[in-house]
Amino acid sequence: ELAAFVVVDGGNRPNAFEALVAKEAPTFVPDRAPMSEDPFLLMFTSGTTGEPKAVVHHARSLIAHNDSDYVLNFFHPGDLYFSSADWAWIGGLADGLLALWPYGVPILASNARFDPERTLSMVERHGATCGLYAPTALKRAPRRRRRHACATMCA
């Protein structure tokens, strides 16, 4: 059952996100400890095989994604993370954004459509040192640039 309906950019409507945040208490006291089964994220399938469907990801899924690569001391001081994975995809969002926050790793982001030359130029220009790259993205990169990207960013 839907407990609340919140409108982002809702103007002065009582259920506008901005209005709800403004009327809250200055401190937050949770009513209980977080649980692994708590709903964490609502995403929708792409709809390529039918109507898009809502998928609820629970808090435990973030822990599972976080545990996948990062517990092996993958990150180091001064790292800059980049991934060509779309944040609308759970792998791109959970592995490439949300799982990094606890480590304080800055994220290089771009909303441009993937282009191998442009992407590798951006990675080199900004000095990204780690990231998540799909093999198909690396295959599209010219061989001379691919070696550099793999040397600095492939885990």
Report on this model:
Helix 2 (59-69) crosses helix 3. The chain is α/β, with parallel strands linked by helices and 155 residues long. The chain has a 3-stranded parallel β-sheet, covered by helices on one side. Strand 3, helix 3 (90-98) and strand 4 form a beta-alpha-beta unit. The mean pLDDT is 78. Helices cover 35% and strands 12% of the residues. The protein has helices at residues 17-22, 59-69, 90-98, 116-126, 135-140, 143-153; strands at 39-44, 54-58, 81-83, 107-108, 130-132. The chain is built from 6 helices and 5 strands.
Features:
three-stranded parallel sheet, 155 residues, single chain, alpha/beta
Number of strands: 5
Number of helical segments with 4 or more residues: 6
Major β-sheet annotation: 3 strands, parallel
Structural class determined from secondary elements: alpha/beta
Quaternary class? single chain
Q: Considering DSSP H and I runs of 4 or more, what fraction of the residues is helical?
A: 25-40%
Strand order of the largest sheet: 4-3-5
Radius of gyration: 19 Å
Order of helices and strands: HEEHEHEHEHH
Average residue-wise pLDDT: 78
Write the layout of secondary structure elements.
Elements lengths: L16 H6 L16 E6 L9 E5 H11 L11 E3 L6 H9 L8 E2 L7 H11 L3 E3 L2 H6 L2 H11 L2
Parallel strand pairs: 3-4, 3-5
Antiparallel strand pairs: 1-2
Describe what is shown at a glance.
With 155 residues, the protein is of the alpha/beta class. Helix content is 35%, strand content 12%.
